[in-house]
């Protein structure tokens, strides 16, 4: 019988986290699901653990593939999924036992194509809890897209959401790139007639020092700006009324990356090379970004310096660092 939900779990060399993840899925109060574990060429014992769980529960299917990366593993899972709904959990994270019950009921009760919850972070084995008042927000397509780029309720991560299968028709994750959620989530939201959000926290994001986005800045992270080129082109064509929001979101992303580069990249040659790449992407959208009412003067100043003079930008950032140190003393 076809399950209601397909839960896709990509796995690569996460043996110390994997059991907790899979145990949390199998303990769900909502039981009508399949788990598709895609072992992405692990070289540790992760593959054996996956097979162990397939023997333990007939809702678990395991696919062993070569190491094609996170996007490839998710695409394999999507292709094999049979559920009416699709969810994603990274194999080093875990979920509270009522997460899928909550998300599934929200979709059904509000006739929504996507339901979203919030998450807590786990750092060094401790969950960082945040007090929140109960809150549910129902949104049409445009409002859901606006909130995606506004970023206060939810962001691009695919794993704290439940989607009707139709949202992924003709949509795949970009293989060979990182920041895969950035490249994908807006396309999925574009296919949703209605979206519902709850500030119930069901997903636990485990912060690992060795994850791709917590290691020192490298050239691969500039993939994000290829994604932003696609996003802005798509949004200009289909959601131009939201320009204030997606261009501001892009500007925040630019400035964040500038700070990562100046604080994490040691070689001056590499710093200027990476900043020059971002400068080229900013050039195409500068005149619209600088007019944005959503951006404060600090961000506009950094964007302006980046566009016109990288050396002056670096001088300004270093000067601010010196001032901040003196004020802290």
Walkthrough of the structure:
The protein is of the alpha/beta class. The protein has twelve helices and ten strands. The protein folds into two domains: 5-212, Spore Coat Polysaccharide Biosynthesis Protein SpsA, Chain A, CATH 3.90.550; 216-328. The protein has helices at residues 15-26, 46-56, 70-80, 99-110, 141-150, 180-190, 223-238, 243-264, 268-283, 286-289, 297-308, 310-328; strands at 5-11, 33-40, 60-65, 85-88, 94-95, 114-123, 126-128, 136-140, 161-164, 194-207. Strands 1, 2, 3, 4, 5, 6, 7, 8, 9 and 10 form a ten-stranded mixed beta sheet that branches. A hairpin with a 2-residue loop joins strand 6 and strand 7.
Reconstruct the topology from this structure.
Elements: E1 5-11, H1 15-26, E2 33-40, H2 46-56, E3 60-65, H3 70-80, E4 85-88, E5 94-95, H4 99-110, E6 114-123, E7 126-128, E8 136-140, H5 141-150, E9 161-164, H6 180-190, E10 194-207, H7 223-238, H8 243-264, H9 268-283, H10 286-289, H11 297-308, H12 310-328
